[in-house]
């Protein structure tokens, strides 16, 4: 018996359905490889890479004169690689009475993961958080507009972040408040008389020390974190850490800071695994909270 025209149509429709299902399955399998973001830099992240003393990129440095406008000069650290496109940039402020040398280990550590970093000197070591916030933004403006071509040409001016210690951490919140276009902020053992940051829209990682007696987490880091309501946020409290934990090499800080910058400055979802669910309590970690961003 020969098939009727209707049965032929039914067979064709069945075959077409099978082809479409197989095509969809092929796309679904291939999609993870195709989903790589345009700003991903470096190899797939591992805990070993994040805890190493240097990341995968070689770096160089450049000095910034104290005669620049808006801040007190400093040091720039940048990847020497020119094959992977531009990089995000981060400005970092030291704390009250401190100079950049107190945090200088962070410069090459972060830059070696694919960022241009400027560690600033403040106009005065006694500058308050609001002034430090303005100086952080001035340093970013310097990087994208007035730094040497070698540095400037490596920077994506739309992917900028701020960080700082103590009053520099308070200044980080000030900068994030006044410039919501920033991609990330990392206040470290932050100190600020203002306890409410509900206006902040910048993804913010706050890192506090459990034994901090200068900026106790109960009156600084924790209320700062709780007050942020319009942005992705995380809070890492380091076990038994004093106010001065960032002034010597601190791998838990560096690990989480790099992961946060990679996730939000580079939009690199490969780093979600280090933020959500994030560090578990024990060892160096006293507590970790997060809004748990997911790709």
TrEMBL record:
PET hydrolase/cutinase-like domain: residues covered: 34-293
UniProt xrefs under Gene3D superfamilies: alpha/beta hydrolase
Superkingdom, natural source: Bacteria
EC numbers: 3.1.1.101, 3.1.1.74
Molecular-function GO terms, alphabetical: cutinase activity
Transmembrane segments: none
Keyword set includes Hydrolase: yes
GO CC list: extracellular region; periplasmic space
Family from the record: Belongs to the AB hydrolase superfamily.
Protein name in the entry: Poly(ethylene terephthalate) hydrolase
Source organism (scientific name): Acrocarpospora phusangensis
């Amino acid at each position: 018996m020969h098939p009727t025209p209707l049965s032929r149509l039914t067979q064709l429709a069945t075959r077409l359905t099978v082809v479409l299902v197989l095509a969809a399955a092929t796309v679904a399998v291939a999609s993870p490889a195709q989903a790589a973001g345009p700003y991903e830099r470096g190899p797939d992240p591992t805990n070993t890479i994040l805890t190493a003393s240097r990341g995968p990129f070689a770096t160089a440095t450049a000095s910034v004169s104290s005669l620049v406008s808006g801040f007190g000069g400093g040091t720039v650290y940048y990847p020497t690689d020119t094959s992977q496109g531009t990089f995000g940039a981060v400005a970092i402020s030291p704390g009250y009475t401190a100079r950049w040398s107190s945090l200088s280990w962070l410069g090459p550590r972060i830059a070696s993961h694919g960022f241009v970093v400027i560690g600033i000197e403040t106009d005065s070591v006694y500058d308050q958080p609001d002034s430090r916030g303005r100086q952080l933004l001035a340093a970013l403006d310097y990087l994208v507009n007035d730094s040497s071509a070698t540095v400037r040409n490596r920077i994506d001016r739309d992917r900028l972040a701020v960080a700082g210690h103590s009053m520099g951490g308070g200044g980080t919140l000030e900068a994030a408040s006044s410039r919501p276009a920033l991609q990330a902020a990392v206040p470290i053992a932050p100190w600020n008389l203002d306890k409410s940051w509900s206006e902040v829209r910048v993804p913010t990682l706050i890192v506090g020390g459990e034994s901090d007696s200068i900026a106790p987490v109960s009156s600084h880091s924790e209320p700062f974190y709780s007050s942020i309501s319009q942005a992705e946020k995380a809070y890492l409290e380091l076990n038994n850490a004093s106010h001065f934990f960032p002034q010597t090499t601190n791998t838990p800080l560096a690990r989480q800071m790099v992961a946060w910058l990679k996730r939000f400055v580079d939009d690199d979802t490969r780093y979600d695994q280090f933020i959500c669910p994030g560090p578990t309590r024990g060892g160096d970690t006293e507590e970790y909270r997060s809004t748990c961003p997911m790709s």
